[in-house]
Amino acid sequence: MLSAKSLFQEIVDNDESFRLFCSIAASGESQGGWENARIAALVPASERALAPKITRHGADEDKHGRIFNALLRKRGLEPVEVPPETDYTLLLERHGIGLAHDKLKGDEPLTVQDIVTYLSHSRVTEQRAADQMVMLRKDFGDHPEIGKAVRMISNDEDNHLAYCHEELLRFAYAGHGRAIQRTLRECALAEIGIYRDVSLAVMDHMGRILHWPKAKSAVLAAGIRAMYAYERSFGWRRMVSLTMPERRDALGGPSAAAPEFA
């Protein structure tokens, strides 16, 4: 019987599929680290108090990239080049989700609206990341090889999501509510399409590596498209709601050190 747990177990058990998975994950996390570091450096003067939290967010993402690379090294594997059709962060940027890299590479300070846009987009993408890590933590939190990494990254993603909720509510109370809701909805609807396309591409690559039969690949592709249809109709709403989190000031301190992988 096909399940998320059995599929991921197949990927973990095979060196080549594990190599691709960790390479894709490490690349995306490192890109997120760079983006957050640049945003922190360009925060407008009126929001300088937010800069340490954005810096912490970026440091966490960098740490996650190092963790995935460490998992590869533990097996004696080297990262592989990430196929562009599987590069979630690249495709997000190309579709205007997140602040444009041209802007982040410059020296002009960002505007308050830029920060609102950044937080809105982060709220959507961090929801995706947190949901994925909850699933992995449930099935692989005690795995002898990857369990420690899964637990740490999952906790960090929960912190990132809490931070986005809290800061967006602060901006909403300051008069940015309509802009936030509009940006959240636009971003969520775009993200679910990108996530579908990336998921199909990743499963296609994994299927070739693991020699899945055509019937199995077809069932997986149908499941991904069914999830997209649900998210397009109803599921996107979970990505745009805002509630004050139980974890307050979730990014108020330094990033925790990455675990050692002996």
Description:
With 262 residues, the chain is mainly alpha-helical. It is built from 8 helices and no strands. Helix 7 packs across helix 8. The model has no long low-confidence stretch (mean pLDDT 95).
Residue-averaged pLDDT, rounded? 95
- Unreliable sequence segments: none
> What is the number of helices?
8
* Main sheet characteristics: none
Tell me how many strands there are: 0
Q: What portion of residues belong to β-strands? A: under 5%
Percent of residues in helices:
over 70%
Q: What's the N-to-C terminus distance? A: 34 Å
Tell me the series of helices and strands, N- to C-terminal: HHHHHHHH
Q: Which descriptor suits the 3D outline? A: globular
Rounded to an integer in angstroms, the radius of gyration calculated over CA atoms is 18 Å
Report the structural category: mainly alpha
Oligomer: single chain
Outline:
This protein has eight helices and no strands.
Give the topology.
Blueprint: H1 4-13, H2 15-42, H3 51-74, H4 88-94, H5 101-104, H6 112-140, H7 147-210, H8 214-233
Helix pairs in contact: 1-2, 2-3, 2-7, 3-7, 6-7, 7-8
